[in-house]
Structure formats: C-alpha cells, structure tokens
Amino acid sequence: MSDDYLSKPLSIGGSDLGLAPAPSKTVPKFTSPYLNYDTRYMRQAQPEFIFPEGASKQRGRFELAFSQIGSAVMIGAGIGGAAGLYNGMRATSLANQTGKLRRTQMLNHIMKQGAGTANTLGTIAVMYSLFGVILSQVREDDEINTILAGTASGLFYKSTAGLRKCAIGGGLGLAISSAWVLYNMSGSKFNKNYM
Hints:
The protein has helices at 61-94, 99-138, 143-157, 163-185; strands spanning 31-32, 37-38. It is mostly helical.
C-alpha cells in the first residue's frame, strides 16, 4: 500500500455517507485502526525545543526559580493544612464543640495554618531563588552556589529575630542545602539542574 492514503481526508467510516471506508485488516502497522491517523506524525525525531546556537540545553537558575517557588507554596499549604486539621480536631474536641460550629472551627484552623505555612515556605523559596540567581550571575553555577544560597536564605529569613536565631536559621539553611547537594551527588534520580 502506498502513501496515497495520507492525501485523503480523515474518514469516520461508512461509505454510504460518501466518506472513505473504515480501515481494514490490511492497514499498515503505523496507522491507528481507531482514528485512521498516521502515528508517524506523533513521533518526534528532533528535539521539542530549539535552542540558539551556543546556548545551554538545560534550564538555568532563573527558569527553575518559578517551579521551586510554586512547589514550596503548594507543599507548605499541604503541610500546614494537615497540621491545621490535627490542631483543629484536638482544639474542637477539647472545647466539646459539635455540628456546624466544630466544622467551622476546623476549617478556620486548616485555612489559617495552611496559609501561614505556605507563605513561610514561599518566602524562603523566593529568597533561596533570588540568592541562587545572583550567585549564578557572579560565579559559575555549581553545588557551592546551592549551599551558599541555602545558608544566605536561612540567615536573611531570621535576620530580624536577633543574632542567635539568625545563626540558627543560617545553620539550618546550610544543613538542608548540604543534605540536598549530597543527595544529588549520591546518584539520585534527579540531576543537578533541579537544585
């Protein structure tokens, strides 16, 4: 069978309406028997995106910042919502609330704690992304930038709480970013573009 069927219009089946007949058993392997569609057009031999010559074929820190911030907000909302559900159940049972009052109080706990945690993690992610982008412009983008950005984010986030809490925040940022770098270097499924 030649490729002349490619020039024919899409057939739904049934020759009594003047449409092309439905595909028979002799249809080539590459044609879908359900849609009468050549699946060769779905296969891509070329890359999906065209990069300028000399450009990196990986997303940089700035492009990754948007997904990191959004992910942090969503994770914060989930964690905060779960913690709010637990706290709401405990508080309403201690107050012997029932019915609509208990339901309303539970929703208040879930929404308040979910929004608070989402804002906190989103703010930290914005700081981390900002420091990461600045550091990648100043020096070569590598694992040290990830550790420096995490440490600076912790220091800056707790900078208004006093010197002791600022040092604790920086230490926590250093620990989390170092653990992430070690996890990526140990042959995980993620590559270094997701730092």
